[in-house]
Amino acid sequence: MLLNRAAVLFDVDGTIAETEGDGHLPAFNQAFDEASLGWQWSTADYAGLLKITGGLERMIAHARQIGWSNLDESATLEYFRSIHQRKNSIYAQRLQSGLISPRQGFTALVQKICAGGGRWAVVTTTSSANWQALWADAVLPRGALPEPAVVICGEDVEKKKPDPQAYQLALDRLGLTPRECLAIEDSRNGLVAACAAGIDTVVVRSRFFGQERFPEAIRVIDELSELV
Q1: pLDDT-derived band of residue 143, with 50, 70 and 90 as boundaries?
Q2: Cβ(87)–Cβ(31) under 8 Å?
Q3: CB within 8 A of 139, min separation 6: which ones?
Q4: Per CATH, which fold does 21-96 belong to?
Q5: How far, in Å, CA of 82 to CA of 124, rounded?
Q6: What is the second-level CATH architecture of the domain 7-18+102-227?
Q7: Using CA atoms, how far apart are residues 69 and 27, in angstroms rounded to an integer?
Q8: Closest of 27, 37, 26, 87 to residue 62, by C-alpha
Q9: Are 109 and 225 spatial neighbours (Cβ–Cβ below 8 Å)?
Q10: Residues identified as active-site
């Protein structure tokens, strides 16, 4: 059985909840407006930028695409960091407003994993603040779920997905081998990262990656409820 593992490792954005289109994208655009940056990302723009992991990294990539020439200057990077921090605050406010819910079957899936003696963990390259906003601000039903055994966020690693470093760190902290774990991802970058760490991976189709192919996955599903 797929869930007959010591731990199941969940990605966050697009996997646990559809946070990108209703959370991150409008938060980016509001932060850009407030900073008078003159940027507005369309859904199509954002779909392309999601191939790059990390919000700050996406901003830098976009700046390169439109010809910014001073990206190596510390003042420019600090400017982008300040906008990204403001974006994260706006994102947290959107979560608190109740705009985003867990994906279908998430709560029941975690409960089933834990009832069977397994643990659940989080392996994401989003920021710790963004994870805490999702976990602590009534988006995920904390009262119905145990705390994740391990949480790996973007600040915990030097190299983000598709590099396997985040998954390798999670395995170290869990004290488990790749064969004892299952990963659940929604993107190709996440799938590549988990597979490179030697972990069997299920892909759940999401809004921005739903049409991609995932030949390395051991199973591709439309909703997490299919695993319950």
Answers
A1: confident
A2: yes
A3: 17, 95, 100, 101, 102, 133
A4: DNA polymerase; domain 1 (1.10.150)
A5: 21
A6: 3-Layer(aba) Sandwich (3.40)
A7: 25
A8: 37
A9: yes
A10: 11, 13
